């Protein structure tokens, strides 16, 4: 058996000699599109071999026909043709172009660096038959701490037979024995509690291996799509209902993951949960009263260890839940996890991290400092408030290119007839319209450009026809309106203004930025070239941009596996400077300047 | 109002000007006998004024008629005549002669030194109306730790109103805020879990004041009177039933104490429980399997902090239970508490501490070391295995004097017709018989001494008539048999042998002993002169003997009030040398030599 790691998820799968990478990927739930169904015709299932090229077959004639020599040279292959041929560690990068996007909920983050120094560990010790001192002294071993929890002592008193030697598993949390078992593989569960989705990772705390990845829509969504409506509900009806919803969801996910891994929730000794400040408060049953009013103060920003049972989580009775620190009311532990996953705190040069959503969090490192802000970018990037906007589900145009003549090439999730446009494709189209001159830098559509695709819509405002009704699944034209463009301009201006303010504060110049990390599901599907074209971020070399997907989940998993990283997270949260944009005088000016395409520098 | 402290209990009561000390004592549950019902006739309600003689009335003519000039000079007064006349701190010693013994279950220990540095404390802090940082940072005060428990954060998030200044009570356990209340007086509950009785002390953790003292028969007694039968039951039926019994008992006592003090169990934030090793294990639901077999290893000897709720104790949800360390299978945390209460660890010279019961624990300090042993003294001192033996209940002869002619003067609990003899009176009688020559030093009754009180009983063995049936409540003679004398000889020999072995090991000579502490309910009623006469302890000056009653309870209360003392308890338990008598070769020889009256030195 050979192990294949799929990046950027970091998902590992066992492969048999002779299997194609596409087969391995599909079997293990890694999302690769393949319209021609493995016949090497469409060239869509491209992957890049990062490591272990010796262990895969040489490029076939079919691949050479589809892929350019340069691509082949860079290590790109068709996953339907590239087969495992001998043992070795194979690492494969699946570019977002090769993903269907149907599994957007399942996108995982890349683990940039793995540290394995978990807080929970297991030690096997032989209890001698003849015990002279106390039982807990009799099992003395240099690997065991002196402290035993009452629960572990109760178990020990029952399991130790008089006069019989016995080997037992001691589960240790930090410097305390918390359980005694005949045998056991201690597991951990990392949870990224998003406003929309909840993702969980079941991890073997000894090997560091991820045993199962699960996700579910956040059931709180029944009480509103965004954090504001969740807060409203909590203030009116009490926090308890929303608290129970998310705890139940975590319990179900954990059970599902344990079932998938052939384990029991009894073996889960630790959980790490990250989320924005509102999700954090609802999970811990902290009333979010003050999060509703400026200056949005959380109850606490400290990292917490609590008995998982005390908030209703059904893992082992001794399981702890660790929640990393928060930075502010609108910058939660998910951002701390982003920072941990991307290693921003250890990089030398200037770095920008942006996690795009309805609220976009921005972190900038520079001048030996770290600063963070949150900006209200609105839901346009997620397809809301866009005439034909939709999420990345079947029928969504998720990538688009505007040709010089105004025609549009696009990709649709599930290769179906289009039903709407995702935020990422909207950005592609706006960037394209600007490039080919169908839209000016103020964002106005050029109605006199000579393309019939630009017309005056029913509302009296200009619009751009992305696809005509003959080719859509909805029986009407799919268009991008002038108003849609304005929505995206406002959204990107909010992000860009926040970025500019942090960069100025830390004296970071765009040309010096060594890395731009784009985190979050939306960012993962966003075409970095289009994003730069519309001015979502400054002129940064594309090679310095990293799409890191669900970095929050990856950071949660990394902290589950490493006590050191928890310490770093605490330091980062204490050190980071929170910039409250609402109280920054320059914000309005920066915002206004960022509205044009590409904005700011072009001024 | 004036405060009167009753010693050796240390019980404090408020008194009004004009009240007699007897009235104050009775109102506050301090046990003083008064057969003449306050008419200054019987002279039984004698107390000694230790402090505050200026605040009480001068001796009346009636008192001068009853008390000797020497007694009066020493500060003795009739409590029925001695009245509070002005403000001041009055401290009164109630000698055991003035106690009825009916309340033997209520005997409290003397607190030798009070330290007030409790682990739980309250801090009042104003939460400002406008909060910029996190809520827990906003209440920052030099008196508050940085750490908040989740429970306290949940409360804080609900209690802090937006835009309103609010003063709140923060309850701190060690270095963590564990609760937030509008207002609250944090209480503690110290419990001495005896095999027979359970005593509880409700304490105000801020002032150190004892608010209520309660006690109850240990309900486990339904499963056997001694620790061996409790272990048997636990091994056959599981530990759970006995565990529940004692937890329920503590819950009831705590509720009763809180009701008496006008408080709620919600205000109890900490408990300290001491007991012998078996009681300790049953309380904590540790299976006592190994306590049944030599070498009697406990599961743990370490001090433990557990959430009280986790073992079913119904105090505040955040209440902790502290159990001090154990020394060995037969030397429990009650002995550690004895040591703490009597300050043995701080005394300079050689000291002996003995806690007499079915198992008698002995602690000796000397040569800069501490050593402890446990010896199986049996139940004779408690009246069991003695023909007319009984506990100190109504009708029990609890003190006796054998006159030169063989007649017996005695005191009966409740001044009733006698029904039997307590262990303490048995010791008085044996000592008396020896002194007046009616018994030789081997313990044999002298049948040819010319008193008709010594006769051959129905069993064919000699016996001594303590009271003839005309004067008893049972319609038959109350006698002390030759076998009874043997039982007491074996019991005292076991204690004396243990004491001798420890003294030799630490090079302690009887003449150098600075203090002999006699702990436990039985020891409190034992006449020290009689005890010395029969050789229960070596020739130690009477002024150096201290009857400290329930020192274990006092020690538990002292540890409830002082984190420092818990640290000392831990040090003491680690440092103390446990001597396992069964493995001491000299034990049999010492035991044999200690059987005669007075034993050992006389040889």
Automatic annotation (TrEMBL), chains A, B:
GO MF terms, alphabetically ordered: iron-sulfur cluster binding
PROSITE patterns cross-referenced by the UniProt entry: 2FE2S_FER_2 (PS51085)
Domain 2Fe-2S ferredoxin-type: 2-98
Domain of life according to the entry: Archaea
Gene3D superfamilies: 3.10.20.30, Domain of unknown function (DUF4445) (3.30.420.480)
Protein name: 2Fe-2S ferredoxin-type domain-containing protein
Organism: Candidatus Terraquivivens tikiterensis
Origin organism lineage: Archaea, Nitrososphaerota, Candidatus Wolframiiraptoraceae, Candidatus Terraquivivens
